[in-house]
Amino acid sequence: MSVQQVLPLNGLAAEQSGPFRADHLLVAEMVKPGSKVLDVGCGDGDLLQLLETRGIDGRGIELSREGVNRCVAKGLAVVQGDADTDLVNYPDDAFDYVILSQTLQATRQPKVVLENLLRIGRRAIVSFPNFGFWRMRLQLLIGGHMPRTENLPASWYDTANIHFCTIKDFVELCDEIHVKMERAEALDLYGRPLRLRLPWWVWNLFGEQGVFLLSRGGGK
Amino acid sequence: MVGVKSVPSPTIPSPTISADDRSHEVDHPSSEVARFGADQPLRLDCGVDLTPFQIAYKTYGELNADRSNAVLICHALTGDQHVANVHPVTGKPGWWETLVGPGRPLDPSKYFIICSNVIGGCMGSTGPASINPATGKVWGLDFPVITIPDMVRAQAMLIDRLGIDTLFAVVGGSMGGMQVLQWTAAYPARVYSALAIACSTRHSAQNIAFHELGRQAVMADPDWHNGAYADQGIHPHRGLAVARMAAHITYLSDAALHRKFGRRMQDRELPTFSFDADFQVESYLRYQGSSFVERFDANSYLYLTRAMDYFDIAADHGGVLAKAFAGIETRFCVVSFTSDWLFPTSESRALVHALNASSARVSFAEIETDRGHDAFLLDVPEFFDISRAFLQSAGKARGLTNKDG
Q1: Which domains does chain A have, with CATH numbers?
Q2: Higher pLDDT, residue A6 or B218
Q3: What is the CATH number of domain B19-398?
Q4: Which of B353, B359, B367 sits opposite A94 (nearest CB)?
Q5: According to the UniProt entry, which residue ranges have a biased composition of type Basic and acidic residues (chain B) (predicted)?
Q6: Which among A92, A132, A136, B233 could disulfide-bond with A166, CB atoms 3.0 to 4.6 Å apart, if both were Cys?
Q7: Average confidence score pLDDT of chain A
Q8: DSSP string for B36-98
Q9: B contacts of A77 (beta carbons < 8 Å)
Q10: How confident is the model at residue B236 (pLDDT cuts 50, 70, 90)?
Q11: 3-class secondary structure, B295
C-alpha cells in the first residue's frame, strides 16, 4: 500500500469550537449521518453524545462501572463490557461503524480486537496515541525513560496501556490482516489534524495520535 | 425497611390482621378489577383454559390522547398492585413509592401507570385463594399451575381492555423483571422500552432450591391440610412465616445484615440461654415472617414461586436466548446490584450479551451497593438517576412531552 493512497486529506471539522474534543469531532465527521455506531471504550459518553446530536444511532461499551453508569444516567445505550472479551457476542455486520477511540493500546489482543471491529462493523474508526511521536522518541533516547506525555501521564508501572504502537506499526498490522485504510489522519498534541499531505515518516514523527477509517479487504 | 420489633415468644405469633380482611381482598379487591368471562379464557401454559378470571389493578395518572404514555409496572413475588398507595390490608405505604410518585422517575403527571396483581396472586386477581365458581369453594390446589408467560398473557388482556396498543415502558424488578423480559419476548412490538431490574431470563438452580425450601416449610405446617386450609378456616401461618424468613435472608446480603444488626442483642445485655430471639437479627426475621403472613396466602406463595422456577426464556426458543429477542426494536435498560446474590450481575450480563447478539438497543448498569437483592426497592439514588435518564431518553424518542426536562 503506498502512502499517498491512504492519505486523502479532506476538509476537516476540527476547527469547530464548543464542548467537544477535536479528535471526537474528527471521528464524528467520518461517520455518515443516520448510521448505526458502536463506540468501544466510550468513557463518559462524550463522543456518543456528539454523535447523537448528528442523528446517529450510537451504542457504547465501557469497561469501568463508573463510566457506564454516567453514560446510562445521560440516557445513552451503554453496557459494561470489555473489548477483549465481549465483542465476540455481537453478530456480523451489526453496525455501520465501530469506533475504538484511544483504547486499542489498552487491549490484551489488539489484533483480535481489530478483526472483531471489522467483523461486527462494516467500517471501523480507530484512534490511538502514536509512540513514534518525536517527544516519545526523545524521552527514551535522551532521557532514558519510558515516555510520558500530557495525554499519557501514567508511569510504566501503573498504566493500563500495555500495547503501544506507532502509526507505522499500525499500518503494517492493517496490511497483515487485510484491512483497507479509507482515510488516515495524524493529530498534533492538541488533537488538531496535521493539515498537510505529508509522507508517513513525517506523520509517524509529528503525529501525537493517529485516526484511521478502516474497512475490510485491503492489504496484500 | 421495616424496623426491628421485640418478639417475646420463641415461636412465630399468629397474625394480628384477621383472615377475613385478607380473604375479602382476594375476591373483592379495593382496587379496580377487570373481569373476563367465558368468551375470553386465559390460555395457560399447562393446557388449561382458565375462565372466568379477574385481574385486579391500580392506575395512576392519565392516559394521553395518543395513548402513548402507558407504563406497566410488574410486581415481584410478594408484591401486588398497590405500588404507590396505602396498602388496604397492612396500611403501609406503596411498595415502590421510591420510584413511583410525584417528582419520582415514574411520575403520574407524565405517565399513565398501571400495576396489576399477577394471576395466581392473592390481592384480587384470580389465584388459589379465590373462590372457584364451579364449586363455590376456595380453589386451593385445584387451581392450575401458572407460569410467568401466563401472568404476562393476562396482563396483555388487561392492556387490551384498557385500550392500549403499545406500552411506553414495562418496568419491574425480580419476578417483575422476569415479566418485563417475557413481555419483550412475547410482545416485542407492544413494548417501546423495558426496564428490567435485578432479574434473569431463567431461574437458577440455587433459586429453585430456595423456593423448594420455602414450599416445603409451608407444606410441613400441619395447618396446611394439603392446601385445603381455607375450608377449615385456618392458615398455615407458621410454615409460611418460615418460608418468608428463609427467603428474606436471600434478599439481603452478609454485609447488609452485619451493618444492620451485627451480633447485637435484642432488648437485653446477656444471652438468655434459651431459644428466645436473643439477637436483633432473629427478632427482625421473626417480624418479617409474622408480618408477611398477615397479607399473603400460603398457596399463592407456592404457585408464584413455582412460576418463577419454571421461567426460562431460552428454553422456549430452542435453547438460544438471543433468538427470543431477534430483530427487537424495544429499548432496554438492564440494572443489577453488586451484592445481589439471588440474581447476580452475571445473570444480567448473560441477558445483555443475548440482547447485543440481537443488535437490540440496550443500556446496562451494575450499581454498587451492599444491600443485596432488595436494593431495587430501597432508596438507591444512582438507580433512580439511571431509571429517570433511561425513561426520559426513551420518552424523547417516543415524542412524549417532557415536563421536567
Answers
A1: 4-216 (3.40.50.150)
A2: B218
A3: 3.40.50.1820
A4: B359
A5: 19-30
A6: A132
A7: 85
A8: E-TTS-EE-TTS-EE-SEEEEEEEES---TTS--EEEEE--TT--S-SSS--TTT-PPPTTTT
A9: 331, 361-363
A10: very high
A11: coil
Inform me whether the C-beta atom of residue B333 falls under 8 Å from chain A C-beta atoms.
yes
The answer, as to whether pTM is greater than 0.95, is no
Q: Do A73 and B386 touch (CB under 8 A)?
A: yes
Cβ–Cβ under 8 Å, residues A203 and A170: no
Q: What are phi and psi of A78, to 5 degrees?
A: -125, 140
Distance between CA atoms of B362 and B371, rounded to whole angstroms? 25
pLDDT of B157: 98
- The mean pLDDT value of chain B amounts to 93
Query: Over the stretch B17-69, which tens digit does the pLDDT of each residue have?
Result: 666 677 789 999 999 999 999 999 999 999 999 999 999 999 999 999 999 99
Q: ipTM strictly over 0.85?
A: no
Alpha-helix runs per DSSP H in A31-186: 46-53, 65-72, 83-86, 110-120, 134-138, 167-176
Q: Report strand pairing: B53-60 vs B32-36.
A: antiparallel
Please, are residues B114 and B57 in contact by the beta-carbon 8 Å criterion?
Answer: yes
Residue B331 annotated in ligand binding: no
| Active-site choice (B203, B235, B237, B373) | B373
Instruction: Give the list of residues 6+ apart from residue A112 with CB closer than 8 angstroms, or none.
Output: A84
**3-class state of residue A213 by DSSP:** strand
- Enumerate the residues of chain B whose CB falls inside 8 A of the CB of residue A91: 357-359
The verdict on a CB contact (< 8 Å) between B385 and A73 is: yes
Q: For residue A81, list chain B residues with Cβ-Cβ distance below 8 A.
A: 352
